[in-house]
Amino acid sequence: DQQVKQNSPSLSVQEGRISILNCDYTNSMFDYFLWYKKYPAEGPTFLISISSIKDKNEDGRFTVFLNKSAKHLSLHIVPSQPGDSAVYFCAAKGGGSNYKLTFGKGTLLTVNP
Amino acid sequence: EAGVAQSPRYKIIEKRQSVAFWCNPISGHATLYWYQQILGQGPKLLIQFQNNGVVDDSQLPKDRFSAERLKGVDSTLKIQPAKLEDSAVYLCASSITRTSTDTQYFGPGTRLTVL
User: Fold this and answer.
1) Chain A contact probe: residue of B9, B37, B58, B110 with most A CBs at under 10 A
2) Are B88 and B37 contacting, i.e. CB atoms less than 8 angstroms apart?
């Protein structure tokens, strides 16, 4: 039972354009969402998060949008840079006292120069 | 500020052997997590510690996996005996405490190959 789904295994965009990574979740108890970026042979690095009381959070080139009614969130990267090429994981937590993270399978983003 | 440290970075063993991984969290972080990441999947939580107590080990295969966090600082994860399906990256993470908004910071992981 996959509670966090990233349906696109990969995405390729041109440098300078917008990258949009999508994530869907099924557990309505989730109330906090995070995006992590992972380079090969490194651990995931925290990128940006959003609470369920908000519908948008922005940090520089990165913006996360949350649509609670659709149980959908997306990460926008504008403008995309070659250094953004990595695997992006969507994660969610809530609904229990242990605050554990539930991860999606990840999306490999490739930004072409 | 030093990040989460893990060792070894790579380990190759044969099935039925035992193996241990070590993690040192960020200084001052009370909560420590061990995740298993199988190729093509997202990380899956194995066990969570708050200081030196176990908060959640519901997904830890307790017949072969064990973990401890003596003195509430560094931690070890052990597999005995290993199976082929244990081949994965084992990630350690830590957070200041255990709230809904605390960020978990990950170490580089240990890549385990079981032959």
Assistant:
1) B37
2) yes
